[in-house]
Amino acid sequence: MARLVGRRALFAVPVLLVVTFGVFAIAAASPFDPVRAYAGPAALGADQETLDRLRDNLGVDEHFAVRWWRWLTSALGGDLGQSSVLRQPVGQVIGERLLWSTLLCAVAFVVAVLAGTLLGVLAARRPGSWLDRIVTSLAYTLEAAPVFWIALLVIWLFALQLGVFPAGGLTDTASEQVTPEQVASHLVLPAGVLAVSQLPWFALYVRQGVGDALAEDPVRGARARGSSERTVLLWHALRSGILPVLTLIGSRVPELITGALLVESVFSWPGIAAATVEAATAVDFPLLAALTTLATAAVLVGNLLADLLYCLFDPRVKFSDM
């Protein structure tokens, strides 16, 4: 396990270098003007001399490779730079928002895995039954539905029509401090929407895996020995059928991050979505590079976690084979 983690850590280094270099290259080719984004409305009345002086101060005319190398050497020393659009240190920007994005993604992912596994097992028990058809049809429908459309529909139903949950934000507008109760009530809708966007994949994978396991010889042998249907389903079919789901943990991380950005934007959740959008439109090199590095690292860790879990749960696979 230690060797596997070490190899993946060494592999992550060139990946992160290439990703950050690509971010600076793409941002340099962006049609957005970072000087006007930095100046804001004041840029409308500023003369060209003032804009040129501001451009020199920001180093916009420097080659992107020079800016990338300066940012990289500073980042290795613990300094992620200064966000030009938010006027804050990049570390502070990420620190203030990462907790809420992590909370949203973690809750949604756990709900998606548990609910998807339950629905998949129920559908696999009796293939072709009405429950199987309902679960399969619902999974394919939700898989095709855009995340932002689901979010707007949920806001209209549960916030505007029924009024059971707030439409967005982190706390009530009249509240001056963040309380766990308010955070929990405001988390229900965005976490639910994000979980629904991930649930179909787990439900379909579990349904297929458990359905195939029920037809295997070990499960038939357990039934022949007189084991109850519950024991056969949970201790034999589910343990074998859950293995393909472990590979989804890593592969769904990019989709989870993308969905979280959309959900945070729709529900005004104070995560990293707003910072990412502002960094992209304002060509904020340091903030954009740090956020991209963070997202890439999350994907790499997700893939590593999936491989570790697969090796632990499947005795046929060894860590040396990964």
From TrEMBL:
- Ranges for the ABC transmembrane type-1 domain? 98-306
- Cross-referenced CDD domains, in alphabetical order? TM_PBP2
Instruction: Kindly state which keywords UniProt assigns to this record, in alphabetical order.
Output: Cell membrane, Membrane, Transmembrane, Transmembrane helix, Transport
How does this chain sit within the bilayer? Answer: Multi-pass membrane protein
**Domain of life of the source:** Bacteria
Which lineage ranks, top first, belong to the organism behind this chain?
Answer: Bacteria, Bacillati, Actinomycetota, Actinomycetes, Kitasatosporales
Q: What is its main location?
A: membrane
- SUPFAM superfamilies recorded: MetI-like
Give the record's family classification: Belongs to the binding-protein-dependent transport system permease family.
Protein location: Cell membrane
Name of the protein: ABC transporter permease
Record-annotated membrane-spanning stretches: 98-124, 145-167, 287-313
- Indicate whether RNA-binding appears among the record's keywords: no
Q: Which Pfam families match?
A: BPD_transp_1, BPD_transp_1_N
